[in-house]
Design brief:
single chain, 8-stranded mixed barrel, disordered N terminus, binds ligand C2E, binds calcium ion
Length: 279
């Protein structure tokens, strides 16, 4: 038994060091990812539940590294946050998404909202407002078509600062969305103090809608209260016809998820949008 314990310990400690090594490899590659042009954006449609038409799109960051292959945002975004690299990366995301939107407009595609995710560090960065202002000017992006997605956690800590910053961003004409709603600590009562336009119901409530009566109740309550506050309500992670039907019955405004489209490359999204124009 003593022998076994020893082996277990060795196994455990070598696992820790291989994890540390992995993390260091990830971090050093992430530091060079921007200059090596390893990032790209995938675009996922948001669809109006009444008309079935595409109303907007969310830009989602993708990283392909020679050594590591494709790395999921769930893995590298937390590292980018901890190291502060996310501020630079986030600026690149916003600028690239805006340039893409302008390019689609020039191709004659219908105007759509472009949603960009903000990270905790970006939101805390004192240059955020100046960055957004500069990117709008540099790209010629219509501010009314830009929507920034933030999470509840970013705004509940320093409420006064958050309200000031969000109000200033709104004054640029940019829209604001609360992402992953229902997973954080804010309440809808608090939300009424923030100048937001959109509420995105977290995927965890949508996933089991067909079978989970609690999730049904929570989802319809969020939709109803969002409407009371005159917010556009978007359901995330819609994968089935049943979920779509339920959301339509609850008069949810929009949906996003694999059922309509996965996040796709720019050309593929342009094709989706182009098809829509024809109908
Ligand atoms: P998110 O902002 O909540 O984005 C939605 C995630 O759900 C995306 O994962 C998307 O691919 C996935 N998804 C969409 N529809 C479905 C569905 O029907 N079923 C399932 N199972 N998943 C679906 P992704 O692209 O891996 O991104 C994960 C998270 O990484 C994002 O969650 C966001 O928090 C973060 N992220 C992605 N891009 C950026 C970025 O440019 N900046 C920042 N700060 N965070 C980003
Ligand atoms: Ca998002
Ligand atoms: Ca989300
Ligand atoms: Ca549940």
């Amino acid at each position: 038994a003593k022998e076994e314990g020893k082996n277990n310990f060795q196994f455990y400690s070598s696992e820790i060091s291989s994890q540390t090594l992995e993390r260091l490899t990830l971090e050093s590659n992430l530091r060079r990812a921007l200059e090596r042009q390893e990032f790209s954006l995938a675009y996922q449609a948001k669809v109006d539940l009444k008309s079935g038409r595409i109303t907007g799109v969310e830009a989602l960051l993708r990283w392909h590294n020679a050594e590591l292959g494709a790395v999921s945002p769930a893995t590298f975004i937390p590292v980018a946050e901890e190291t502060g690299l996310i501020v630079h990366i986030g600026r690149w995301v916003m600028k690239t998404a805006c340039l893409q939107n302008v390019a689609w407009q020039k191709q004659g595609l219908p105007p759509i909202n472009m949603a960009v995710n903000l990270s905790v560090r970006q939101f805390a960065d004192e240059h955020l407002l100046a960055d957004v202002t500069a990117i709008l000017a540099e790209t010629g992006m219509n501010p009314a078509l830009l929507e920034l997605e933030i999470t509840e956690g970013m705004i509940v800590h320093n409420v006064d600062r958050a309200i000031k910053l969000l109000t200033a961003i709104k004054q640029l004409g940019v829209r604001l969305a609360i992402d992953d709603f229902g997973t954080g600590y804010s309440s809808l009562g608090q939300l009424k103090n923030f100048p937001i336009d959109t509420l995105k119901v977290d995927r965890s409530f949508i996933r089991d809608l067909a079978t989970d009566s609690e999730d049904k109740a929570i989802t319809s309550a969020i939709i109803a209260m969002g409407k009371t506050l005159s917010l556009t309500v978007v359901a995330e992670g819609v994968e089935t016809a049943e979920q779509q039907t339920f959301l339509r019955e609850q008069a949810c405004d929009e949906m996003q998820g694999y059922y309509f489209s996965k996040p796709v490359a720019p050309d593929e999204f342009a094709a989706l949008l182009g098809k829509e124009k024809a109908t």
